């Protein structure tokens, strides 16, 4: 029997693990959608694969995704390389440029949700296919948008019922600040390259900032010993002012955060604002979600300058956090009416009646004939308000026997009477 690829998951109501239960997914996506639409953002769906260059140029040649070959790359028939998206931002910026959104009133605020693919080694909370809700505000470089994005992200978590959040806010400066910082780190780590993990040894030349973010204990021990100065100490005046304004705006909005002078983010395209949201339940090393500003990304994709800021919320990891905080999900709606056939010939009568009443009334039916007692049990199990039977007698009289499950009241009703009953105020 064939099985799913390790690191990919089927999402359905009864899934054993909480993060893969469809109602949890639906709760997260619908809440995020409500918050983001309510704030005037517009939904966009981009393809889940693009030309490889979109991601290569977007995430940067030195990011883990490219260096560690975490992208799923394949060829189209013409031999052109395509990749499954390892993150949504580059696609959204590509779409913004492709559809001339630059002439729309700015900023253009877009959001999406869907699967993301990374060939990572499998561990809890880390999958090859996972899902993100993603928000991007494009076309304006103003710290107000950074503060709004952070506030919206926090609002999504809080609306879902999460309490123990920590927003870590930093700045990765402007490209020239990062150049200076990387040079400083290169000189600091260079002599100790042999003590670093294999991945980080490559980073000394390519992108030493990423060493600070390393999950390897070996690297973390060396970092503790060398005590590098933080990125924040290398900000130029413009980036410093921008960072201070984001802080001021968040203070004014009453959004709690802690400044993390060492915050670095996995993708190369970030400039200035970078943040992560952490949750005690999923461990200090993993973020619940993250975001940042990426003012140079559009140019990397061959487009005009388009500043932008946005965030990604990992759905599975968020589900783990919700489970750990014991957040109750909204109950699934129960059927209003459960209609059961008492004999073979009633099967189609039951379906025909259900189809007449749907979608106004939430009707479920029994698919095999059963006794009235069994049908009643089934209706109770489903949490229905009414159970209806059709058997030989009902067919002869052209009625349905309807029982109100709470009061026990039972009546034989003709279809028209049934319709008017369900039109009354009693039925929601
Ligand atoms: P990133 O795009 O790396 O900043 O990731 C944003 C968020 O996506 C993270 O904070 C996680 O919640 C989630 N995430 C990233 N990688 C994975 C993965 N391999 N499996 C599950 N969730 C992930």
Concise structural overview:
This protein is an alpha+beta fold and 428 residues long. It folds into two domains: 22-174 and 235-325, Bira Bifunctional Protein, Domain 2 (BirA Bifunctional Protein, domain 2, 2-Layer Sandwich); 337-423, 3-Layer(aba) Sandwich (Rossmann fold). The protein contains 15 helices and 16 strands.
Number of strands: 16
Largest sheet: 8 strands, mixed
Work out the count of structural domains. Answer: 2
The CATH architecture of the largest domain can be named as: 2-Layer Sandwich
CATH H-level name of the largest domain... which superfamily? Answer: Bira Bifunctional Protein, Domain 2
Structural class category: alpha+beta
Q: Mean pLDDT score, rounded? A: 92
Whole-angstrom Rg: 28 Å
| Hetero compounds | adenosine monophosphate
Rounded to the nearest angstrom, the distance between the terminal CA atoms is 45 Å
**Tally of DSSP helical segments:** 15
Sum up the overall morphology in one term. elongated
CATH structural class of the largest domain: Alpha Beta
Briefly note the CATH topology name of the largest domain. BirA Bifunctional Protein, domain 2
User: In which order are the strands of the major sheet placed?
Assistant: 1-5-6-11-10-9-7-8
Percent range for β-strand residues: 15-25%
Tell me about this structure.
The chain folds into two domains: 22-174 and 235-325, Bira Bifunctional Protein, Domain 2 (BirA Bifunctional Protein, domain 2, 2-Layer Sandwich); 337-423, Rossmann fold. It contains 15 helices and 16 strands. The chain has helices at residues 22-38, 52-59, 64-67, 89-98, 143-160, 175-189, 198-206, 217-226, 237-253, 297-300, 315-324, 346-357, 372-381, 392-397, 415-423; strands at residues 42-43, 49-51, 73-75, 81-84, 108-117, 129-138, 165-171, 258-259, 271-279, 289-293, 308-314, 337-341, 363-365, 386-390, 400-404, 410-413. The chain has an eight-stranded mixed sheet, with helices on both faces. It has a five-stranded mixed sheet with strand order 13-12-14-15-16, with helices on both faces. A three-stranded antiparallel sheet has the order 2-4-3. Helix 1 crosses helix 11, helix 2 (52-59) crosses helix 4 and helix 5 runs parallel beside helix 9 (237-253). The two termini are 45 Å apart. Adenosine monophosphate (AMP) is lined by residues 87, 118, 120, 125-127, 130, 132, 266, 287-290, 312, 314, 316-317.
């Amino acid at each position: 029997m064939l099985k799913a690829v390790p690191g990919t998951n089927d999402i359905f109501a009864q899934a054993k693990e909480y993060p893969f239960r469809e109602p949890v997914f639906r709760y997260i996506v619908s809440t995020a959608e409500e918050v983001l639409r309510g704030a005037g953002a517009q939904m966009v769906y981009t393809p889940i694969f693009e030309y490889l260059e979109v991601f290569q140029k977007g995430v940067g040649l030195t990011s883990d995704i490219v260096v560690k070959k975490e992208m799923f790359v394949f060829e189209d028939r013409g031999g052109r390389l395509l990749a499954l998206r390892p993150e949504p931002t580059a696609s959204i910026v590509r779409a913004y440029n492709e559809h001339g959104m630059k002439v729309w009133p700015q900023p253009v605020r877009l959001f999406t949700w869907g699967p993301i693919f990374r060939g990572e080694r499998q561990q809890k909370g880390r999958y090859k296919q996972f899902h993100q809700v993603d928000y991007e505000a494009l076309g304006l470089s103003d710290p107000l948008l950074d503060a709004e994005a952070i506030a919206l992200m926090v609002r999504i978590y809080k609306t879902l019922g999460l309490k123990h959040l920590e927003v870590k806010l930093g700045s990765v400066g402007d490209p020239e600040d990062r150049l200076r910082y990387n040079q400083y780190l290169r000189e600091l780590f260079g002599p100790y390259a042999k003590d670093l993990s294999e991945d980080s040894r490559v980073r000394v030349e390519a992108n030493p900032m990423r060493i600070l973010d390393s999950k390897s204990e070996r690297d973390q021990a060396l970092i503790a010993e060398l005590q590098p100065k933080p990125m924040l100490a290398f900000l130029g005046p413009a980036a410093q002012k921008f960072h201070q304004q984001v802080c001021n705006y968040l203070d004014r909005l009453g959004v709690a955060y802690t400044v993390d002078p060492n915050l670095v983010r996995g993708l190369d395209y970030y400039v200035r604002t970078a943040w992560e949201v952490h949750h005690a339940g999923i461990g200090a090393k993993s973020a619940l979600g993250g975001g940042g500003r990426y003012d140079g990304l559009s140019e990397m994709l061959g487009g005009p300058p388009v500043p932008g800021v946005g965030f990604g919320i990992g759905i599975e990891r968020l589900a783990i956090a919700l489970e750990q905080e014991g957040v109750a999900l909204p109950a699934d709606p129960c059927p209003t009416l459960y209609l059961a056939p008492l004999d073979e010939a009633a099967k189609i009568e039951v379906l025909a009646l259900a189809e007449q009443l749907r979608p106004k009334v939430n009707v479920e039916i029994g698919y095999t004939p059963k006794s009235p007692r069994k049908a009643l049990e089934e209706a109770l199990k489903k949490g229905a308000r009414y159970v209806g039977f059709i058997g030989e007698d009902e067919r002869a009289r052209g009625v349905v026997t309807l029982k109100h499950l709470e009061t026990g009241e039972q009546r034989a009703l003709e279809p028209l009477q049934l319709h008017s009953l369900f039109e009354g105020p009693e039925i929601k």
